[in-house]
Write a structure and sequence with these properties.
Shape: globular
Distance between the termini: 32 Å
Mean pLDDT: 87
Low-confidence stretches: 225-232
Helix content: 40-55%
Oligomer: single chain
Number of strands: 4
Number of helices: 9
Radius of gyration: 22 Å
Largest sheet: 2 strands, parallel
Order of helices and strands: HEEHHHHHHHHEE
Strand order of the largest sheet: 1-2
Strand content: 5-15%
Amino acid sequence: MTRSRYFHPHTKRGGEALDGIGILPGFRGILCHDHWKPYFQYGAAHALSNAHHLRELERALEQDGQQWAQRMNAFLKETNQAVQDAGGCLEAATAAQCRSRYRDLLKAAEDECPAPEPHQGAGKRGRVARSKVRNLLERLQRFEDDVLRFMKNPRVPFSNNQAENDLRMIKVQQKVSGCFRSMDGAQTFCRIRSYVSTCRKQGLTASEALRLLFQGKWPAFMTSSPVSECAE
């Protein structure tokens, strides 16, 4: 799992911002995310965050009464627990059984949440609108490999909750202040948060990280020696 964090402000959102920040364009690993479309431009493969699926499935049950959603929710939680009990990766036979069960659940869901009827009559074109529940069902069908990738690869997490937790402080700051007063201020804030967050993931407290910073020293994990002076 990643042991560092990098925050960077940008005036845009989406591919333009991600390209401008410059990290994801060179990324060649497995990118775990919430199915936001711009992310599919990057990485060698993808893993969809199942924490998001669990929330959507709970909504489908509570607001739309979809019973299949409850069964899928339970399946994802049980599979995640099985992966943890197995040390981070299921054996091939067990993974195949889980995949088969996953497909059976989605097949049964078709009876409860069928696709809408195609357009009738002349002059009507385009894709027929789907409900939120139907969109979720079709996404789980279409992106099966990305949903279940955590079963076979110990480096793939069940969700991207860690990344969202790291972003929470940024969102709290925005809610309190409304916005940053300048781009320089936003860049300074992100630089400090990147440093402190990375240090905490490396076992340093925030106070120790800041003490070293004010003393002009790098934390040990950033150097080849235990503690060294910052470069001028």
